[in-house]
Amino acid sequence: MILTIDIGNSRIKWASWLTEKIIARGVAEYSAETAADVIDNLFSTVEKPQRVFLVSVAGEQLYPALRDWVLRSWALDVECLKTQKKFANIINAYDDPSRHGADRWAGIVAACSHFPDSSVCVISAGTAITFDLVEKSGQHLGGYILPSYISMHEALLSNTANIESTPDLQYHEQGVPDNTDDAVNQGLHRLIQAGIREFCQLAHEKLGEPVQIVLTGGFAKNILAYPDMPSMHYKPDLVMQGLYDIMKQRSPGQS
Known about the structure:
alpha/beta; 5-stranded mixed sheet
C-alpha cells in the first residue's frame, strides 16, 4: 500500500493506494499551531504503508513535523515531489521548474493522462485559483494565477474602511444587491466567474480544439454551481493521481 499526502495552505489531504486505486482517504484543516496534532489525528489510524509520497505548497513549516511523525511511527522516509522539466512527453514551460508549484505539476500530469488525445486547461481552485495550459503534444505553455474568493474577501475588508461583510462561499442567483454584505459576496463570485470564463476562452484560442477543461481543488464545487460556465471535468483526486503516477516510478531515495 502507498500513501499519498497533499498539504495545501489550509488543508492536509491523504489517500491510500492499492493496485492503482484509492482505497481510503481523509482530510483535515490545519494551522501552524495545530499542525502536529492534526498530523497525529489524521495518520494514527492509517495502516502502515510501504512508501509515503508528499506534495506540499506549505513551504518548509509542516514538512519536519510530518517527516518526524512518519519516521517515528512507521520507520519510513517521506518522498517529496518536486516539479521537473519533463515527465513522459510533458515538458514544463518554466525556465526554472522549481518556481512552478509541485501541486500544479502533479495536476498537469494527471490531466494529460486522463485526456491523452486532447489539449488540456487545468484549473486548481484552492487558496489561489491556478490555470495551466498544455498542448496535446505535452508542451506546457504556462498559465495564470488568480486570488480565490476568501483571499479577495479578506483583502477587500482589510484595506477598505466602513465595509463589513461575512464570507459566503455559495453563489446566489439574485438581482442587483441592495446591501453591502451581498454586494461584496456576489461581486466577488461574479468576478471569479468572469475570470474563469475568460481564461477558458483563452485556452481554446491558444490551444485550438479539442480542449478539455479539468477542474480540481477545494473551491471546485462552488465554481461548478456558477451559471453558464464552460463544460468542465471535475476531478477531485487530480493532484493525488499525478503525485502517485510520478513518484511510483522512482526508486526510494531517488530525487
